[in-house]
Each structure stands twice: as structure tokens, then as C-alpha cells.
Design a protein that fits this description.
With about 750 residues, the protein is an alpha+beta fold. Among the domains are: about 150 residues, Valyl/Leucyl/Isoleucyl-tRNA synthetase, editing domain (Isoleucyl-tRNA Synthetase, domain 2); about 60 residues, Ubiquitin-like (UB roll), CATH 3.10.20. Helix content is about 35%, strand content about 20%. α17 packs across α18. The chain starts with 5 loop residues before the first helix and ends with a strand. The mean pLDDT is about 95. The chain binds ligand ANZ. The site of ligand ANZ has 17 residues, from β11 and β15.
Length: about 750
């Protein structure tokens, strides 16, 4: 080869890796392990985008780095394949989601291979593969057996466009996260996982994790622990009493009215013929608002129910109102309003002319019973979708749910002709008439037609990676003990939902004896987004999307793309794509190639200091995830080698250090130099920087010479202190120093006495 030809080099090494499978991982008891994974992608039809490449390359850099350091490394790969895009496409075109998924996975796999990732392709998983979702169903049944999967009738966010229920975190500003359509509230029977059972532990163990503080705080706020009391208020006229949740039971003497949420279950019992219509109108309006809107600091709204309660402290009759600033799913959905103490209540009292009474505080424990409440709700998991994991439940004649026996798993997704949900909002599974019928213990039953939230499928996939082909268990005990918990997990999304759900399942399965650890992910890297060159989000409609495969095929190659995406900025910050900088990285790799293939090596080792300095810098930077500065240090090193002349050892070191970023080029260089890829070590003795001599004059006469580090020439204070501490200087300065003048260029310090 006469010049750097990335496409040729990359093809050669990818073929070698395909054949020799160097990234296959097997348990080696006694040898230290390292497991790394990215948040597995949804394989969309559009293929990999630059965001995937950033995410995957971070994991790849760490994978190769630790492999070169001699650890037993596992880096698997998978696809999160259930979900709406494939189903919507199926509804539109009639193509089976199974087929679309297969095509998309093949494309993703090809592209990931084209990027040279060090993946153990023997551990590839796909959540819509029956071999996989059989075990998702098994997981559901374990939760069901322990009462942690249950059904409840409740108001749910409903997207009329997608015809599906949405969880709270899938509603963004009152709109569906997928399609952007305004959402509504609808009362339905739904399946939930009882994540609240683990609220305390989920909260307490956050601090032990090596996760970004930002994510830890988001999870804490999401769980939202609140310590207070529940207090019962009798209702005048015999309607059921109202229980309020308060964090300030000591303010009860100032409670001059009660407020219940519009969704309050016993609302009807509070209404009178005079108030009913007005209250129900109000309720209808309130149901259309999102919780976020209801908590915004807008003018308060509300109506009087017509009923009164008795304040157990003052024994006074106080009115009961309904208002949407009280939320249904929090606490008990009812509050005691203390307008003298609480701003929201104060505003409400002023607007509706309700009494505001200043009182003394009482003992917190006088009224009610202590109670801890969480902002987090149970996890709503049923979806009225076809393209999801079927919930393994069937109903008898009376409508009672029964689990599908484990030996009848998987409950396969039936083929249908038409993927549209039926008019009642049930998924297309309801149209598979034969499939619907099932016999359990000799009794005819009807299958559940809801499927599981995709987050259920991703709540255990990291454990499947330990033994992806196990036919007898979701995960193998020996394998999981060796490989997990995951050492590094990298993604740029799902700070709360996925990362909380997987922690919840981990704790549950640890309690059941299936996992030997209680936290699934030791270290989390939360990477930033890559934006278009104009700084805007990349999107097809704006026509500003950079296709990573174009960058490769334009001749730059995968190594340039990978190295560029690590160089683009701190990994956890958003960054804008810069085509000129891509060219710069390409030229840098070109220079590396030239050093290995078209350079006469220098025989004097003038670069020993910078070589050791670079080894240290790159090693420590990768440890601290400072991938961008590691690349910058390598660029500086190459500049220095061009200036001072490179030895063979310099170039071998360069190839080893650059291998995590540009593995094809590095492999080519190491082959040429007949060197292995073992990570190089630095020796501290070469790290001292050059020294210079500073002349010290006292009243114009030379009195001393100081030997200082060249870096210290920028530090006037340090040089002055060194001089004043010098024995020879001190002989002359006993009478005191009037002033000092330092001239760095002349390496001269003047002392006036
Ligand atoms: C009386 C009171 C007096 C309150 C006072 C606060 C201050 P956190 O800290 O967020 O848990 N509250 C209770 N349930 C509610 C609901 N479903 N919707 C809206 N507000 C609700 O807040 C708990 C406090 O928020 C509770 O304590 C209650 O008001 C209100 F000086 O009760 B407090």
C-alpha cells in the first residue's frame, strides 16, 4: 500500500474478525472479568444514526481498552424490537412486524459490523424472538405469583391516535411521546407492576451507585418520598369520611376547608342536587388537563361540593371543595387546606373567599396516623397493542384472571391479517379467534389481549446476555455470578423509566433467589446527543441528518468516524457535527499510517518523555471517560513525533494507544511492526518535565542560581518563594525584602532589599 486506504484495511480486518471471532467471551473463573453494554437499540428502518455510533463507540473504546489490559471482557449486543413504529407500519402496509423486524435487524447488524465493534456476536438477543419473550412471560408470572403484577380499574392516559394507554412518563406536556397527539383520560382496567413496594430501597441504594449525579437526582425526585400523616375527617350527613394526606399535621388548627381531586372516588356522595351539574362539568374539564398543567402556577379553579366536614381539632364545620390542583394519584387524593400556611391553599381561599385563620402549631402526633407517601406510582404495563409480548393470562367464564402454566410458555403472537386495533380499543390480538381460546386445567378460557409495555422486555435483557441460549432458565446461575452486575452501561435516554424499572426487577429477582446482587448496573455513562452542524436536532423533516454510513463510504472509513465521534467533545455533552473536523481526524489517522508505513525510524530516543507522558494521559483519560482529550493527546503526540523523529517504539506505542478508537488502522500498524496490542505502561521517572536555570539578583548583583521545572516559569509566586527559601539568598535578605521583580523571558528574578 502506498497510502492510507481505510476501506481496504477495514474490509481486511473485519473479515479476519468474522473468521477468528476474537471477541467471543467465555467464563474463566479466577480471571477478572468486565462486562459492558450499551442500551440496546430499537432497530428502525432508517438504520444506525450518528447518535447510535457515539453510544456504541463509547462502549467499544472501553471494551477494547480493558481487553488490551488483559481482562476477560464481555460485550454483547441486542435489539429492542417490540413497539409502535413496526406496528404502525404493519397497519399501513399490511407487512408483518415480524418480517420488518427481521430485515431491520439484518441491516443493523451489518452496519454495526461495518463499524468494527468488538461484539460477541454469539450473544445477540432480540426481544420479539419467542425464545426470548418466553422468559419475559416467565418473569411476569413470577411477579404475578408474588402479587406484584395486579389489575386495577383506573383513569389512564389514552392516546386516541395510537389507540393505546400511556404511562405517566410517556405523556409529555399533555401529548403522546410517540405521535404528539393530545392525550385524554379514560377509565379502564389495566395491569400494573407494584414498583412502589420497592420505593424505599430504590431510593436508599441510589447513593451507592457510580452513576452521574444528574440521573441519581432525577430518580430521587421521581420516587419523591414524603413523610407525613393521614387524618380522617367526618363528613356531615353521613357520607363516608375523607382521609387526607398531609406533611404538616401540626397545622390542623388552621385547616378551614377540605379539597378533593376531581377524580376522587367518593365524589358523588358529596354532591347535592344543587351542585351536581356544576361539579360534574368541572370534573370533565379537569380530566382533559395533564398533571403538569394542573400543577402550573396558573389561576386556581374549583367548585363547592355542597358538603361539609368536621375538623377533628377545632370541631368546626368546614366546607368541602373540589379543585384540580389536588391530584388524584398522590397521597389520598384529598387534602386539608391550611391557607394561613400553604401558598396554594392561600391563593385558593382568597379567590373563593374562604376563611384564613392564623393559629399556633400543635404536636405533630396528636392527630392521624404516620404515613409515608411516594410521588412514584405503580408501573402501568398493559398496552392495547398487537406487536408486544403477550401477557400470559387467561380469563374464565366469570372474568377471573388465571396465569398460563409455565410449561405452556411461550404464549406466541398469532398471525393476523389486519393489525388495526378493534373499535373498543383492544389490540388486533382480539381478532385471532382461535388463538383467543385456551384450555387451562381442563377449563376453557379466553386469553388476555393486552401486551406488555416494552420496558418490561428491557428490564431483564442484561441478564439474558450472560447465557443467551439457555433453554432451561431465563439466565444461568453460574454465568450470571461470573459476569454480572454489568460494569459499564452506556446510553443517552431513559434516565428514569428504564433505569428505574431494571433496578426494581433486580431487587425482586434477588429477593426470589434468582440474582446474587441487588443493583444491576455498577457504572452508568449517560452520553449526550449529536446535533446537526447548525446545532439543531437532526431530523428527517429538516433534512439535516448526517448518515454515518455516508461518512464511511465517502472514503473516510469507520476508524475516522469512530475517532471523530469520540473527539467531538466531552462524551456527556451534546455536540454539533462539524464536517471540517471529520477531515481533520482523517488527516490525523493518515499521519499515523505514514509513521508506520512510510517513515524511517529515528535511532535516538528524543521522544521518551512525551511517549510516557502520552501513555499516562491516554490511560487516565479513558479511565475518566475523557475520550476527547485522549484523542487530542494522541494528536499532540503525533505532532511531536513528526517534529523530533519517531522511534519504532514510539509508533508501536501509538498503535496500541489508538486501537480502542481506530482498531482497523491500529491492527494494520501492529501487524506491520510485528507487535502485540498489550496496553503500554508508563514509567514515572520520565514524566518530570525539563528543567531550566533561573538567575537570582539581589540589588543588581548575581547571588544565586535556581534549578526549576520549565513549567514553573509561568508561576511567579512559586519561583519567588523558592528563591526566598534559598540559603544563599537568605544570607542577604535578613534585613527584609522591599520588592521582587520576575522576568520570565530572561529567567531572571530581581530582589530589592
Ligand atoms: C396541609 C399542609 C399545610 C400541607 C402546610 C403543606 C403545608 P409533598 O411534600 O409534595 O409530599 N397534598 C397532599 N396530597 C395532595 C394531592 N393529592 N395533590 C396536591 N397536593 C397534595 O406535599 C404534601 C402536601 O401537599 C400535603 O401537606 C398537602 O398539603 C398537599 F403548611 O397538608 B399539606
Amino acid at each position: 500500500m502506498e497510502r492510507y486506504e481505510p476501506l481496504k484495511i477495514e474490509q481486511k480486518w473485519q473479515k479476519i474478525w468474522e473468521e477468528t471471532k476474537p471477541f467471543r467471551a467465555t467464563e474463566e473463573p479466577g480471571k477478572p472479568k468486565m462486562m459492558l453494554a450499551e442500551m440496546f437499540p430499537y432497530p428502525s428502518g432508517a438504520g444506525l444514526h450518528v447518535g447510535h455510533v457515539r453510544n456504541f463507540t463509547i462502549v467499544d473504546v472501553l471494551t477494547r481498552f480493558y481487553t488490551q489490559q488483559g481482562l476477560n471482557v464481555l460485550r454483547p449486543f441486542g435489539y429492542d424490537t417490540f413497539g409502535l413504529p413496526a406496528e404502525n407500519y404493519a397497519i399501513k402496509t399490511g407487512t408483518a412486524p415480524q418480517d420488518v423486524t427481521k430485515t431491520n435487524i439484518a441491516n443493523f447488524r451489518k452496519q454495526a459490523k461495518r463499524l468494527g465493534y468488538a461484539i460477541d456476536w454469539n450473544r445477540e438477543i432480540n426481544t420479539s424472538d419467542p425464545e426470548y419473550y418466553k422468559w419475559t412471560q416467565w418473569c411476569f408470572l413470577q411477579l404475578y405469583k408474588k402479587g406484584l403484577a395486579y389489575q386495577k380499574e383506573s383513569y389512564q392516559w389514552w392516546c386516541p391516535e395510537d389507540q393505546t394507554v400511556l404511562a405517566n412518563e410517556q405523556v409529555e406536556n399533555g401529548k403522546c411521546w410517540r405521535c404528539g397527539h393530545e392525550v385524554e383520560k379514560k377509565k379502564m382496567k389495566q395491569w400494573f407492576f407494584k414498583i412502589t413496594e420497592y420505593a424505599d430501597e430504590l431510593l436508599e441504594e441510589i447513593d451507592s451507585l457510580e452513576w452521574p449525579e444528574k440521573i441519581k437526582t432525577m430518580q430521587k425526585n421521581w420516587i419523591g418520598r414524603s413523610v407525613g400523616a393521614e387524618i380522617d375527617f367526618e363528613v356531615v350527613g353521613g357520607a363516608p369520611h375523607i382521609t387526607v394526606f398531609t406533611t404538616r399535621p401540626d397545622t390542623i388548627y388552621g385547616a378551614t376547608f377540605l379539597v378533593v381531586a376531581p377524580e376522587y372516588t367518593a365524589l358523588d356522595s358529596l354532591l347535592t342536587d344543587d351542585t351536581r351539574e356544576k361539579v360534574l362539568d368541572y370534573k370533565a374539564t379537569a380530566l382533559k388537563k395533564s398533571e403538569i398543567e394542573r400543577q402550573e402556577n396558573k389561576e386556581k379553579t374549583g367548585v363547592f361540593t355542597g358538603s361539609y366536614a368536621i375538623n377533628p381539632a377545632t370541631k368546626e364545620k368546614i366546607p368541602i371543595w373540589v379543585a384540580d390542583y389536588v391530584l388524584a394519584g398522590y397521597g389520598t387524593g384529598a387534602i386539608m387546606a391550611v391557607p394561613a400556611m400553604d401558598d396554594r391553599d392561600h391563593e385558593f381561599a382568597e379567590k373563593f373567599d374562604l376563611p384564613i385563620v392564623e393559629t399556633e402549631l400543635c404536636d405533630r402526633d396528636l392527630f392521624g396516623t404516620p404515613k409515608v407517601t411516594y410521588r412514584m406510582r405503580d408501573w402501568l404495563i398493559s398496552r392495547q397493542r398487537y406487536w408486544g409480548c403477550p401477557i400470559p393470562i387467561a380469563y374464565d367464564k366469570d372474568g377471573n384472571p388465571h396465569p398460563i402454566p409455565e410449561d405452556q410458555l411461550p404464549v406466541l403472537i398469532p398471525e393476523v391479517d389486519d393489525y388495526k386495533p378493534d373499535n373498543s380499543g383492544r389490540s388486533a390480538l382480539a381478532k385471532a379467534k382461535d388463538w383467543l381460546k385456551v384450555t387451562i386445567n381442563g377449563e376453557e378460557m379466553t386469553r388476555e389481549t393486552d401486551t406488555l409495555d416494552g420496558y418490561a422486555c428491557s428490564s431483564w435483557y442484561l441478564w439474558r446476555y450472560a447465557s443467551p441460549h439457555d433453554e432451561d432458565a431465563a439466565w444461568n446461575q453460574d454465568a450470571i455470578k461470573y459476569w454480572e452486575p454489568v460494569d459499564y452501561y452506556c446510553g443517552g435516554d431513559h434516565a428514569v423509566a428504564h433505569l428505574l424499572y431494571i433496578r426494581f426487577w433486580c431487587k425482586f429477582f434477588a429477593d426470589e433467589g434468582y440474582l446474587p446482587f441487588r443493583e444491576p448496573i455498577k457504572r452508568l455513562l449517560y452520553n449526550g446527543y449529536i446535533n446537526a452542524p447548525d446545532g439543531k436536532k437532526m431530523s428527517k423533516s429538516k433534512g439535516n441528518v448526517i448518515d454515518p454510513l455516508d461518512v464511511i463510504n465517502d472514503g473516510y472509513g469507520a476508524d475516522t468516524l469512530r475517532t471523530y465521534e469520540m473527539f467531538i467533545g466531552p462524551y456527556d455533552m451534546d455536540a454539533a457535527w462539524d464536517p471540517r473536523s471529520v477531515g481533520g481526524v482523517y488527516r490525523f489517522l493518515n499521519r499515523c499510517w505514514t509513521l508506520a508505513f512510510a517513515t524511517e525510524y529515528s535511532r535516538t530516543d528524543k521522544t521518551i518523555n512525551i511517549r510516557h507522558k502520552t501513555i499516562k494521559k491516554v490511560t487516565e483519560d479513558i479511565h475518566r471517560y475523557n475520550f476527547n482529550t485522549a484523542v487530542a493527546a494522541l494528536m499532540e503526540y503525533v505532532n511531536e513525533l513528526y517534529k523530533s523523529g519517531a522511534t519504532e517504539e514510539d509508533v508501536i506505542t501509538l498503535a496500541k494507544l489508538i486501537k480502542p478508537f481506530a482498531p482497523h488502522l491500529a491492527s494494520e500498524m501492529l501487524e506491520k511492526l510485528s507487535a502485540d496490542d498489550e496496553w503500554p505502561q508508563w514509567d514515572e521517572k520520565y514524566l518530570v518535565s525539563d528543567t531550566v536555570e533561573v538567575i537570582v539578583q539581589i540589588n543588581g548583583k548575581l547571588r544565586a542560581k535556581l534549578t526549576v521545572s520549565a513549567d514553573d516559569l509561568n508561576d511567579e509566586k512559586k519561583i519567588t518563594n523558592l528563591a526566598l527559601a534559598d540559603e544563599k539568598v537568605q544570607k542577604y535578605t535578613k534585613s527584609g525584602v522591599k520588592k521582587t521583580i520576575f522576568v520570565p523571558k530572561a529567567k531572571l528574578l530581581n530582589i530589592v532589599i
